[in-house]
Recover the amino acids of this structure.
């Protein structure tokens, strides 16, 4: 990979002095309910006025509905107000940890969450031999998933394999086993969201991402973490370099902060086996990766500004627009070892 390390101009140049914005949070729901029977309950856990959006994905485009909620208050909306049919959707809170979303359908309540790891576990109380599973594909293309069910002793009760073929596709499944299960583990080839329910009253077993997914990192390249200077931002990402001059430039920016520049790069679909969000709780791999660094620049066009989480949220749109990024507030902050990139565990 050969990269240039020069000042750049992309159309109308704008200085990289964007104002800091708080981190948003996305909550997901598979399509398990007819919109007419669905109600979304929203609770503002803060004393501040909060903004949020309904999001419906269709053919690479997000149709959003804007909402506002006063501090300490609650509201509810019908699924028929924003869903055209029974399908998966997302809800976006303007500020992380500010809002609580619950989906209610025919008496069944589901607390929505933001887990997106390609590797999750669901736990069940003793004596459960059956459960329902709803899966939502968060990857633009086909996503292959494998499920293992374990008993109390840790032995595998059964294995299942299935695929989600397109973005935001839902599968609603039912499983019954010949003996009780204690947990299920689900591994996908890319990001997905899952919800499990058990018992006659269909109690919820939420997804848990207990450890970062291991990535097949090559020792032949050098890796760098691209982030903001403050931790409360919308993600961080990893670039892999193999050009000696560019590697030296990246290292010099770490040693001498006064030389920091904007990473102007091209992205493609897939994590590339290296790109994960080190600021996320589960260190989940992104659905995109940097394939080529065009330059480290002092200036960049506003059209390629944003943040890593926003690229993930609107990946198809970003790819359709040329797949370029130049996040104004992001810089090379650290060199990573192959072990750190592979495991998601940063050494002190």
């Amino acid at each position: 990979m050969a990269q240039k390390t020069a000042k750049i101009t992309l159309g109308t140049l704008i200085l990289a002095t964007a104002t800091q914005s708080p981190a948003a949070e996305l909550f997901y729901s598979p399509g398990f309910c007819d919109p007419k029977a669905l109600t979304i309950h929203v609770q503002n856990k803060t004393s501040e006025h909060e903004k949020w959006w309904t999001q419906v994905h269709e053919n690479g485009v997000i149709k959003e509905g804007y909402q506002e909620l006063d501090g300490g208050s609650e509201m509810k909306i019908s699924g028929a107000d924003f869903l055209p049919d029974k399908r998966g959707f997302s809800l976006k809170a303007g500020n992380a940890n500010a809002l609580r979303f619950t989906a209610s359908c025919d008496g069944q309540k589901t607390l929505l969450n933001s887990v997106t790891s390609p590797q999750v576990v669901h736990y069940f109380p003793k004596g459960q031999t059956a459960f329902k599973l709803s899966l939502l594909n968060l990857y633009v293309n086909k996503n292959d998933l494998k499920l293992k069910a374990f008993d109390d002793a840790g032995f595998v009760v059964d294995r299942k394999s299935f695929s989600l073929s397109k973005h935001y596709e839902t599968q609603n499944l039912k499983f019954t086993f010949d003996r009780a299960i204690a947990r299920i583990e689900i591994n996908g080839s890319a990001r997905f969201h899952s919800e499990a329910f058990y018992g006659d009253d269909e109690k919820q077993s939420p997804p848990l991402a207990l450890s970062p997914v291991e990535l097949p990192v090559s020792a032949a390249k050098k890796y760098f973490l691209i982030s903001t200077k403050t931790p409360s931002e919308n993600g961080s990402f990893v670039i892999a370099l193999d050009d000696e001059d560019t590697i030296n430039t990246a290292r010099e920016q770490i040693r001498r902060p006064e030389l920091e520049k904007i990473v102007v790069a091209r992205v493609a679909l897939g994590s590339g086996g290296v790109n994960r969000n080190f600021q996320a709780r589960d260190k989940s791999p992104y659905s995109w990766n940097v394939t080529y660094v065009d330059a480290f620049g002092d200036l960049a066009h506003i059209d390629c500004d944003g943040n890593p989480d926003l690229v993930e949220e609107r990946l198809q749109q970003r790819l359709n627009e040329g797949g370029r990024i130049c996040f104004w507030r992001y810089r090379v902050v650290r060199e990573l070892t192959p072990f750190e990139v592979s495991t998601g565990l940063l050494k002190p």
